Amino acid sequence: MSTLPAGYSASDIERYVTEPPKSAARSPFERDRARIVHSSALRRLGAKTQVLGAGSGDFVRTRLTHTLEVAQVGRELGKSLGCDPDVVDTACLAHDLGHPPFGHNGERALDEVAKDIGGFEGNAQTLRLLTRLEPKSVHPDTGESVGLNLTRATLDASVKYPWRENATPTRPDGSATRKFGVYEDDRPVFDWLRGDAPERHISFEAQVMDLADDISYSVHDVEDSVVHNAVSLSVLRDPGQAREVAAHVRAWYGRGDEAELAAALDRLRAQDWWMDEYNGSHRALAALKDMTSQLIGRLAGTVTDATRAEYGDGPLTRHNAQLVIPSEIANEILILKGIAVHFLMAPREKKPAYKQQRQRLAALVMELAKRGADALEPHFAASYVDAADDAARLRVAVDQVASLTDKSAYDWHHRYCR
User: What are the sequence ranges of the domains in the chain?
Assistant: First the structure.
């Protein structure tokens, strides 16, 4: 029997389906991490879009390299905050597994085509993949797949939005978020993994994972924008440009005060390591990488210090603590996101190819749902045959398309939709 990691209970290391005892050489949480590392879903992220399309350049991030960077940031945060680093590391490795081809653009397309069967949400798809779609374990009584059969603590750490589609919380301004973490037919395992967790409360490890994700993509998307699109950060000296970035923050993320965002940009630009100009030289690239490192250290370190000041030393785990993110740091993360939106994401929205991606994914789902098992990969074909009705069969087609890489989505569309 494995020794319980500090701060965790016997309930935290339980699995949905009990497994025979194994060597104590590795903890249950280390086994969870290994299962993600060896999963086909993780490998596929190497050919999926992060922000810039996979294959658009040797420097830019794919969904996989982004995931590895999130895991590195998250693991260090977890260690410094007293939660098991393997739990956080695994949640970080898993956090984007449910994302479809073409990034958030593909997510929008699948959400539209699945609107009558509960929609599509990348985070809910991640839970579905971990607990059903990724082949590893089956239920001994029913023979149904239970996915990777991870521990309760690890699964809870992977659930960024612990609520159903029809139970989403409201934002401070009264609007509802579209984000949710579980489909209705995955409720049994969701209810099990949440156990006695407070309703809608995000576990501490999931909060750490979410922060690691925010830090990583806010900083690295700026880096990719500078290198790939030759964006000169010096244009932010213009107050008009800075206001446009703040406007994009509010439009895309639904929050942010213009004055506070402007102050956050001023604080960052005042740092010795901030880089206004980039000319592509080796020296410039080294300076840009240093800025990236400094930003990550600043954001992660300040949150760690603030959280430790609130809770003191010792393990901080599950539902026993709340991550403390000072408003200044939250605004610095937001303005970095806004820079990437302003220079990279918003202009991309107007390109015809971007709309074409959504059309192709939607058409492919409908064609696969019509053609049935013969057009699906074997494990999806078996689920299609077992499906009880048209809604369940459509969900199988969505699952199949969501699993594809960018290139295979194009290939499948060419094969079945022409």
Answer: 11-16+26-194, 208-352, 356-416
